[in-house]
Amino acid sequence: MNRLIKGVRPRALVLLAVFAAALVIAPLFVSSYVLSVLIIVLYFAYVGQAWNLMIGFAGQLSLGHALFVGIGAYTSAALFIHFGIAPWIGMFAAVALSVLTGCIIGYLGFRFSIRGVYFALLTIAFAEFVLVIVDHIPWLGSTGGFFLPVANRDRIDLFNLRGSQIMFYYVILALTAAALVLCRLLLNSKLGLYWQAIREDQESAEAIGVHLFRYKMIAVAISSGLTGIAGVWYAFYYNNLFPETTFSTAKSIELILGTVVGGVGTLFGPILGAFILTPLGEVLTHLTEGMKIDGIKSFFWGVCVAAIVLFRPTGLWPWISALFGLDPRRGDKP
Amino acid sequence: MPADIYLNVAVSGILTGLIYGLSTLGLSVIFGVIRIVNFAHGEIMVVGMFVTLVLFRHLGIDPLLSIPIVAAALFGFGFVLQDWVVRRVAHLADHMQFLLMAAVAVILISVCLMLFGPDAQGAQVGYAYDSLSIGPLIVDKVRLYAGLAALVVAAALFAFFRYAATGKAIRACGDNYLGAQVVGLNVRRLFALTFGIGTACLGAAGAILLLLIDVHPYLGPPLTLLAFIIVIVGGMGSLPGAMLGGVLIGASEAIAGLLLQPSLKSAFSFGLLILVLLVRPQGLLGKATQ
């Protein structure tokens, strides 16, 4: 506990507590529509956190993170549908497979010193490769889609992850909170310091004895494992999986967009970004619904993202936290 | 007889591959000089295809004849895009540049969607179903013309970079940014020119491609992915590599489509890509860095 809050301003702690409390009691007050938006927000915040661990902490850019969501989702769904294995148990297999895939990509990339843009393209290639393969596996529903039996929404069965929207809300909220705590602990640990050294200057880090390959692999493994867990939740929340909408590059971009907007490398960037982008998308949908013009929503969406990149290239969190005076002492910034 | 089929499929794959190669030249030129990966690659090409379609429908201009017009239009677009927008993110991290280009791609798709709707549309030329037979080979006329046109445009580009003073200056910027500034080259203008030349290639490739396939707004991402595969196989920043990669991928996709299911052919290309990244990360004709 002490390590968690050390160096954080009291004001920031109070705000965080208020924010967390608001999220915990939110289902009592909001409509089912708002709750569904909050669920998506938290999902993106969680996955963003997992992605951020790789790029923001360890400096390794992945543009194929939808791959790990997809592997987690398909593994747990296949185990549930074909063998009736509950998601909490299937999750172990899902995470193992995600981590294994992440490690294969990492091994290939880091062993052969494929860096930066090339590594990013390698991750895209793997995601698209798996997309085409899953497209051709009838056991996983191929292009036609993979469906979980529709849940009885009245009875909450936490063990089988079948139940109401509120249950899914609390599960993803707990995951997001856990990811935040984990990232905070990792960032301030020795491991986190090694990562940041690699991110800032790989050559210097190697020169002072940081084992590049090992620590990059650990970053990929943790990130892909966390993302795989999100996949399990995703499969049981949506009950249907299609290769194209699960693995595609467009999906990977969607997953990382919030974090980039919120601020890569910051702890609250992924959360802030998700809380801005998802509602923004909803608002745009409502505003443009009446216009009956195809593509107008995505047009404004693209303009907003481009504007953020051009005018707030460090993301919004550093700017907002400075504005409200939430920054820790200088030099202690996570 | 089966041998004939393979030969025919391979030749038609190679001809298509020449167009892929030309479009990849656009990506390669931009990455080689400005060091930015153009994630809006396929979308810009789709814009070129739509421009060609409009010229064909309303003015009756054959796609092959509209190549210079489309290339010029997209040159202007690329020049402005680099000078007004992309230039401002040159100092940012890879993922920010990537996101900006992805946003540009989204904007372009939406504009195409608003103007032309989601349906696939093609340009039906008079010689669409003609074919030539050379010995055992039967080649579609339209594919032959398309491949030759791509080859001509690519040759013009190679000549420009080899002989023209501006082309040499651009190569100098790519080789040594600081050095180019020191000898007094206007790097900002040359970068804008480079981006313009890159998008002009996409315009030309798009115009040619419209002869072979129909265009719709969502064609962008697959074209981008294809160009990524080709550019890595051939070697990022290497112009001959882009053409070689295009021909290789075009032919191997055609053969894979024949041997396996056509829908599996892209998995084959991705497999090839992963293999090349492992064995020769800099690509077949790329220079090793560091």
Structure write-up:
The complex is a heterodimer of chains A (334) and B (290). By secondary structure, chain A is mainly alpha-helical. Chain A has one domain (2-14, 32-323): ABC transporter involved in vitamin B12 uptake, BtuC. Chain A is built from 15 helices and 2 strands. A two-stranded antiparallel ribbon of chain A has the order 1-2. Chain A is globular, with a radius of gyration of 20 Å. Chain A starts with a helix and ends in an 11-residue tail after the last helix. Chain B is mainly α and 290 residues long. Chain B has one domain (16-219). Chain B has 11 helices and 2 strands, in the order H-H-H-H-E-E-H-H-H-H-H-H-H. The longest helix of chain B has 33 residues, at 2-34. The radius of gyration of chain B is 19 Å and the shape is globular. The interface between A and B is large, with 45 and 45 residues.
Indicate how many domains the architecture of chain A comprises. 1
**Shape, principal axes of CA atoms of chain A:** globular
Query: What is the helix tally of chain A?
Result: 15
> Outline of chain B, from the CA principal axes?
globular
| Count of individual helical segments of chain B | 11
Give average pLDDT of chain A, whole number.
87
Our estimate of the beta-strand percent of chain A is: under 5%
Cα Rg of chain B? 19 Å
Percent helix of chain A, as a range, is over 70%
User: How much β-strand is present in the residues of chain B?
Assistant: under 5%
CATH architecture of chain A: Orthogonal Bundle
Instruction: Sketch the topology of chain B as an H/E string, one letter per element.
Output: HHHHEEHHHHHHH
For the largest beta-sheet of chain A, the strand count, sense and barrel status come to: 2 strands, antiparallel
The most extensive contact between chains is:
A-B, 45 and 45 residues
Query: Would you give the CATH topology of chain A?
Result: ABC transporter involved in vitamin B12 uptake, BtuC
Average pLDDT confidence of chain B is: 89
